[in-house]
Design a protein that fits this description.
about 160 residues; mainly beta; Chitinase A, domain 3; Thrombin, subunit H; 2 domains; 5-stranded antiparallel beta sheet; 4-stranded antiparallel beta sheet; elongated; binds zinc ion
Length: about 160
């Protein structure tokens, strides 16, 4: 069966950066299941999967514009520590969710200097080329319930 909108696609993937370091991989664990055409995965990878079939293996490089975006310096903010009251002891690498006009954005603490905390709302993989190796494991039609929810139920997906 061919990959097209509203089909449930199961893939094994390995993601590397420009330095060929592995950033993420499904190897050795359950493959990833997603619904094609619903923005469940980055745009560039979804495009590259369109029209593929079970058993296909391929590599694709996704640029930042079709991946996790280009770095936006405006998303780096410095705040006084007291603005993060209730968060406990602030440490580098901590993450906070904040709402903006685009929905919920995750900010990561990237620096602490005296009373000032630097928060970065860019995705950790912003500005990076994403080098994927993909194996298409399975393609099937989504159920009505899956389409309504916009995500996969059962193995590799959400469980209710
Ligand atoms: Zn659901």
């Amino acid at each position: 069966m061919e990959i097209t909108a509203d089909r449930v696609v199961t893939i094994h993937y390995t993601l590397r950066n420009d330095a060929s370091e592995i950033l993420d991989s499904s190897s050795g664990s359950e493959p990833l299941a997603y619904v094609q055409g619903h923005g469940n995965i980055v745009t560039g990878l979804e495009k590259a999967l369109e029209g593929r079939r079970s058993g296909d293996r391929f590599s694709v490089t996704v640029p930042p514009t079709e991946g996790y975006g280009e770095r936006d310096p405006a998303l780096v903010q410095r705040l006084p520590r007291r603005a993060l009251q209730g968060a406990g002891e602030i440490q580098r690498g901590m993450r906070f969710q904040a709402r903006d006009q685009n929905g919920v954005r995750v900010f990561t603490v990237t620096a602490i200097a005296g009373d000032m905390v630097t928060l970065d709302g860019n995705h950790p993989l912003a500005d990076q080329n994403l080098h994927f190796e993909i194996e298409v494991v399975d393609v099937r039609d989504a159920t009505a319930e899956e389409l309504e929810h916009g995500h996969v139920h059962g193995p590799g997906g959400h469980h209710h």
